[in-house]
C-alpha cells in the first residue's frame, strides 16, 4: 500500500466521521486519531518483528523504552 492510499483512507474516514457528527462540533480529534492508528500500527509491527521490541522500535524510529511505554498504554503487553 502506498502512502497515498493510507492518506486516502484517513481522509475518507475523517470525512465520514464529520458527516456522522451531523453538525456537532468534535473534541479531542488529534488524540482520538493517534490512538486509533497507533494500536493497530503497534500490533502489526510487533507481529512482523516477531515481538522483538528492539527490532520494532528501530523500524518505528522510536526508543525501545518509548515503544514499551506505548505497548503498555495499549495493553499489548503486561508489566
What does the model show?
Helices cover 72% and strands 0% of the residues. The protein has helices at 3-21, 29-48, 53-60, 64-73. The chain is mainly α and 79 residues long.
Percent in helix: over 70%
Spans of at least 5 consecutive residues whose pLDDT stays below 50 are: none
- Overall outline: elongated
Question: How many helical stretches?
Answer: 4
Q: How many β-strands, per DSSP?
A: 0
Gap between N and C termini, in Å? 34 Å
How large, in whole angstroms, is the Cα Rg? Answer: 15 Å
Largest sheet: none
Mean residue pLDDT: 94
Give the topology string: H per helix, E per strand: HHHH
| Helix/sheet category | mainly alpha
**What fraction of residues sit in β-strands?**
under 5%
Structural features:
72% helix; 4 helices; 79 residues; mainly alpha
Amino acid at each position: 500500500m502506498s502512502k497515498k492510499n493510507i492518506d486516502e483512507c484517513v481522509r475518507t474516514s475523517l470525512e465520514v466521521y464529520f458527516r456522522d457528527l451531523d453538525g456537532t462540533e468534535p473534541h479531542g480529534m488529534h488524540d482520538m486519531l493517534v490512538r486509533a492508528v497507533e494500536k493497530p500500527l503497534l500490533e502489526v509491527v510487533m507481529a512482523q518483528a516477531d515481538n522483538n521490541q528492539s527490532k520494532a522500535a528501530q523500524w518505528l524510529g522510536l526508543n525501545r523504552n518509548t515503544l514499551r511505554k506505548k505497548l503498555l498504554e495499549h495493553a499489548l503487553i503486561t508489566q
